[in-house]
Amino acid sequence: MGHSALAFVVVIGILVFFHELGHFIAARLCGVGVDVFSLGFGPKLLKKKVGRTEYCVSAIPLGGYVKMVGEEPGATIDPRDESLSFTHKPLLQKSIIVAAGPVFNFILSLFIFYVLYQFSGIYMATPVVGKVLENTPALGAGLKPGDIIKEINQNPIESFEDIARVIGTGNGEKLTIIIERGEQITSVELVPEKRIGKNVFGEDVDKYVIGILGTGETFHKSMNPLQAMGRSISDTYGLVKLTILSVVKMVTGSVSADNLGGPLMIAQMAGEQAKAGIVNFAWFIALLSVNLGIINLFPIPVLDGGHLLFFGIEAVTGKSVSEKLRGKLIQFGAALLVALMVFVFYNDIVRMING
Hints:
Strand content: 15-25%
Number of strands: 12
Helix content: 40-55%
Strand order of the largest sheet: 6-5-7-8
Radius of gyration: 26 Å
């Protein structure tokens, strides 16, 4: 339990630090004064003032905040600080400052993947046929265990994942497969068949297959900086897409909201990933960083996305949202978040009881 708690604090600390760092850097670049940069909420355990800004670590490690000059509409501002006031900045600059937090979460994910791929490379499944299933196109075409698949429809094959990708995007068209068998290079032709499979959400989907399994063997691939960056962008984009799709499916009811987890589940998973090694732990942080970035972009008042929504309304109408309406919407948003936190805590407790 202590191991999980420590891992949780480390994970949340890193995520919150980068999120708030985004707001802080954007604010300073836009000429906005920052009074407080805090990791955590509540009583301040450690603090140090540098220039105008007080940097502190607070007691409750479930978030953080950047307190900017003139952040609240209608706040009384010393005339000498008006040039440093967030409220007095152009709409575009205010939007950049607010969006910078989630953007930095995506950058953190990208950075973690890049470091992992640049220094550790990646392990991939070999493109070797381990088993040919009965009554499948592969068996009919004469594929055999031990065949090394080199090319499909002129697409070079480096790993078994490449085989699945090329077949899956081929729309069932005939495939010309170049294979290495012993010392010979030969080719076979076949038409994949459509079967019902499961996607990552457990839903039935149609997919094209040829009827082969891999050997389970892997190989290590080193990456140069360009390859590592390309893979990092691809994986970060994939996580963003998957997270958004998961949220949409939960809202529509396609995926059960029981899958949502809160701090207890994060702590448990953080502890497990930390025990599994630094690579797993770093990957887990990258995953959560993307989730945090997306959640903060939800158009819910009190979240960054809610502020961006207000700015969007102001950009369209030419008038800012009234303080009265803004206050009511923020209260609603806060109540919504509290309800969500209660729900995820309930899910966590049920998992612990049933687990």
